[in-house]
Amino acid sequence: MSAATYQYVDLPDASVVTTRALLTARDNISDTVAARAMMCIHGGAGFGKTLAVNICLRALEPHEDVRKITFRARPTARAVRYELFTALDLAGEPPRHPSEFDRLLKTALAERPRTFLVDEAQWLNGEAFEYFRYLWDEPSTQLAIIFVGGEGCHTVLRREPMLSSRIFIWQHFTRLTPSEVLEAIPLFHPVWADADPDDITFADQHAAHGNFRAWAQLTAHTRTALARTGRSRVDQELLRWAFSRLA
Ligand SMILES: Nc1ncnc2c1ncn2[C@@H]1O[C@H](COP(=O)(O)OP(=O)(O)OP(=O)(O)O)[C@@H](O)[C@H]1O
Ligand SMILES: [Mg+2]
To answer: Which of 9, 174, 180, 213 to mutate to test the pocket of ligand 1 (most atoms within 8 A of CB)?
Structure first.
């Protein structure tokens, strides 16, 4: 499967690796969507959350109306209403009055079942989370919501008992373990496919530390080093040069 659209750095020939976390996310997301429930995927930066949920939702999309909302700053309830208005492709001007806006959103959401992917959910404060709960609780809507966020997301959500008590599944993304690295990385990119496993372990211990985004960056620098030196295979000298760019 091509990973082109989801790669952090432009990395030709990279593939999506079906990690244990991605498989678990697939089950969790399909169970959440089937139950029209809410779930939360949380964990450190670069661990592969966004990529995993996008791959899993893409598989559901032929049958499921999926809408993606990504926050980049701390939104108010008003900003959440506007984001939803845009995500739902609603026609006309956004209503001026909150109650009118709420009615419009609830009517649109009552049309058919929908799934929201809310990424970067660590930006949401209590008021913004509460607005999602309000829409989800409305009997006429059939919403499934996947909240995805950094480590802070869990803490913020836990502070909101009204919402957190309604979360159906919590999934914590963690680093790849050293043995997962040896399985996943040769499948991730051709430069690692025939690398010495000791060199992969060396790179993980010194630079990537089980973090998928760091592996993607390291792989990009390693490709450059292979091209510049004309070598056909990764070695420790070449890796040290690549690490020097990551430090
Ligand atoms: N399963 C995977 N297969 C292949 N590459 C992956 C996989 N997971 C992550 N990556 C690589 O790691 C990069 C970072 O992953 P991703 O953006 O999903 O992290 P994240 O957990 O959402 O981080 P953040 O919290 O910063 O948003 C991806 O752009 C991709 O290059
Ligand atoms: Mg992300």
So the answer is: 213
What secondary structure letter does DSSP report for 225? H
Domain range annotation of the chain: 20-173, 176-244
pLDDT at 2: 46
Helix (H, G, I), strand (E, B) or coil at 72: coil
Residues of the chain with pLDDT under 70: 1-9
Q: Decide if 53 contacts 16 (C-beta within 8 A).
A: no
For the entire predicted model, the pTM comes to: 0.94
Kindly list the protein residues whose Cβ atom lies closer than 6 A to any atom of ligand 1.
3, 6-8, 16-17, 19, 22, 45-51, 150, 188, 212-213, 216
Among the atoms of ligand 1, which is closest to the Cα of residue 11? 31
Indicate which residue's Cα is closest to atom 12 of ligand 1: 213
The kind and range of the H/E element at 66 are strand 66-70
Task: Assess if CATH 2.40.340.10 describes domain 20-173.
Answer: no
